[in-house]
Design goal:
Length: 461
C-alpha cells in the first residue's frame, strides 16, 4: 500500500498554447535595472523572466473566454456584449445596476466624484493606492479602520482584513455620520498581503452602518479569493460553495467597484455596480464624459464577453483551490528557506517582509524597493514594492511611514507552473544568504501622483 497522507491539488486545466520567455544574464539585468532607475515598474517586460509584478491584467484566458472573445459585439451603443456582462454581474454578484469602466480606477474615480464632498471622511479596511488617491482628489480624507493585526506581518490571525468596529465608532462619534458618505470595504485586502474579511465581521459592519445610515461600498477586485478563504476558515462555511459565499458577501454591501483584471480572469476591464437608482443615474451620466458610452465605458465588446465568462470561471471551487494553493506552495517553499513573509499566506501573492529581511536598512532608504531590485538582478524575477514608496505622501506633503514594508510576489492566474515557483523561492533564498552586504537606495526623482509607478532611485554607496 502506498503511504499517502494527503491528496494534492492540481490545476483544473491543461496548456494549449505557450508564450516563450527570454532568459537574460546577470550583467544584462544589472544594466537593465540601472536604466530603470531601480524601479521594477520601469523595466522592459521582455527583460523579465518570471513576471510577478502584479496579478492585474496578467491572467491567462481560457479556451471558452477566447471563443466568447470572437463573438464580441463592437457596436458603439447597446452592444450585446454589454448585456451579457451585465447579466453575469447580476447573476453571480447580485448588484442591480452596472456602469462599465475601462478598469477599476475608472469606477473609483466616478464613484468618488459622486459620493464624496470636500471635508468628508472615507473609512476603509486599509488603503489601496488608486482608491485613496481618488478619495483625496474628490476632497475626502481616508481613515484606516482595519484591525491592528493587519499591520503586523507576523500575526497569524485568519481574517486580517476585518474591520475594527471600535475604530469606526470613534470616527462616527468624532465627525458625525453625515460626514461619512460610505465605508469602503476591500475583500482580500491587497495592501495587508491579500488577507480576507470574514462574513461575521461584515455582518456586524452591516448592522452598525445601517443604524447610522452609512453605505458600504465594496472593492470587490478579489472577492472570489476572499470567499475561498471563508470556505476554508470560517465556521459554518466549510461546505458552502465559493459562488454562494461571493453572493452573500455582495448582498451585505450597497455597491461595488471592480477591477475585472484580477479575479475575473481577463486582461482589461472593470465596472461600478450599485443598488440605488439615483447614484446609478448620475454614474451612467458621468461615465460618458470620462470613459465612454454607458454600454461600453472604455471596454471593447470582446473584452466584455471575456469578462462574462471569466466571472463564472473565477467562482469555481477547483479554480480557487489551485489558485490559492499555488500561492501557498510558494509561501511554504520560502518559509523552508527561512524567508520572513506576511502570515497567513495571502490570496494573490506572497509578501516578503523587507524590514525583517534587511533590518540594517532604514525605511527611508527603501528596503522593499531595494529587495525587489536584488531579486530581479539575481534571477530575472520581477516583483513590486509595497511599502513606503507605494504609501506616498499625505495631503500635507509628509511621507506616510506604513508599518508594513513589503515586497509582493504576485501570481498571475493560470500562468506559471510549480517549477517556476521553485525558481522564485530559490532566488529569494540566494539573496537572503548575502543580505548583510546589501545597501539601500535614495530617491532621485519623485512624481506627484502614485509615485511608485515612475519614481527613480540610485544605489547608496
Ligand atoms: N482596488 C484594488 C484592491 C486593487 O488591487 C486595484 C489594482 C484597484 C482597486 C485598481 O484597479 O488597476 O484596474 O485600475 N491593483 C493592481 C495591483 C494595480 O497590482 O495590485 P485597476
Amino acid at each position: 500500500m502506498a503511504k499517502i497522507d494527503k491528496r494534492s491539488w492540481a490545476e483544473p486545466y491543461r496548456m494549449k498554447m505557450v508564450e516563450l520567455l527570454k532568459v537574460t544574464t546577470r550583467p544584462q539585468r544589472v544594466k537593465a535595472l540601472k536604466e530603470a532607475g531601480f524601479n521594477t515598474f520601469l523595466l522592459r517586460a521582455e527583460d523579465v523572466y518570471i513576471d510577478l509584478l502584479t496579478d492585474s491584467g496578467t491572467n491567462a484566458m481560457s479556451d471558452q473566454q477566447w471563443a466568447a472573445f470572437m463573438t464580441g459585439d463592437e457596436a458603439y451603443a447597446g452592444s450585446k456584449s454589454y448585456y451579457n456582462m451585465e447579466k453575469a454581474i447580476r447573476q453571480y454578484y447580485g448588484y442591480k445596476y452596472i456602469v462599465p469602466t475601462h478598469q477599476g480606477r475608472g469606477a473609483e474615480h466616478i464613484l468618488s466624484k459622486i459620493l464624496i464632498k470636500k471635508g468628508d471622511y472615507v473609512p476603509g479596511n486599509m488603503y489601496f493606492t488608486t482608491t485613496r488617491l481618488h478619495q483625496e482628489l474628490a476632497g475626502g480624507k481616508f481613515e484606516d479602520i482595519i484591525i491592528d493585526e493587519a499591520h503586523d506581518a507576523t500575526s497569524e490571525f485568519p481574517f486580517k482584513g476585518n474591520v475594527d468596529l471600535n475604530k469606526l465608532e470613534r470616527l462616527v462619534k468624532k465627525v458625525g455620520s453625515s460626514k461619512i458618505p460610505y465605508v469602503c470595504i476591500a475583500t482580500n485586502v491587497n495592501m495587508a498581503g491579500g488577507q480576507p474579511i470574514s462574513i461575521a465581521n461584515l455582518k456586524e459592519l452591516r448592522k452598525f452602518t445601517k443604524k447610522h445610515g452609512i453605505r458600504i461600498i465594496h472593492d470587490m477586485t478579489r472577492v472570489a479569493e476572499n470567499a475561498y478563504f471563508i470556505q476554508q476558515r470560517e465556521k459554518g462555511y466549510g461546505s458552502v460553495k465559493v459562488r454562494d459565499i461571493v453572493k452573500e458577501i455582495c448582498s451585505l454591501t450597497d455597491g461595488a467597484t471592480m477591477s475585472a483584471k484580477k479575479d475575473a480572469l481577463v486582461n482589461i476591464g472593470g465596472f461600478l455596480a450599485i443598488n440605488d437608482w439615483d447614484t446609478f443615474e448620475e454614474a451612467r451620466n458621468m461615465v460618458v464624459a470620462y470613459e465612454g458610452l454607458h454600454t461600453y465605458g472604455g471596454i471593447a465588446g470582446r473584452d466584455m464577453e471575456a469578462i462574462a465568462v471569466g466571472i463564472r470561471e473565477s467562482l469555481s471551487d477547483a479554480h480557487q483551490a489551485a489558485r490559492v494553493g499555488q500561492v501557498e506552495y510558494l509561501g511554504k517553499k520560502m518559509e523552508s528557506y527561512g524567508i520572513p513573509t506576511v502570515k497567513p499566506f495571502g490570496g494573490h501573492g506572497i509578501f516578503v517582509d523587507a524590514k525583517a529581511f534587511l533590518p540594517h536598512i532604514s525605511q527611508d532608504e527603501f528596503p522593499a524597493q531595494t529587495l525587489a531590485g536584488e531579486v530581479y538582478v539575481d534571477s530575472g524575477v520581477r516583483t513590486m514594492e509595497r511599502g513606503i514608496v507605494s504609501a506616498g505622501r499625505k495631503p500635507n506633503g509628509e511621507n506616510y511611514h506604513p508599518k508594513l514594508e513589503l515586497v509582493r510576489f504576485t501570481l498571475p492566474r493560470r500562468v506559471y507552473t510549480q517549477a517556476h515557483m521553485d525558481v522564485v523561492a530559490e532566488s529569494v533564498a540566494m539573496v537572503y544568504d548575502r543580505r548583510k552586504k546589501i545597501k539601500g537606495l535614495k530617491m532621485v526623482y519623485e512624481p506627484k501622483y502614485l509615485r511608485f509607478f515612475q519614481a527613480r532611485f540610485e544605489q547608496l554607496k
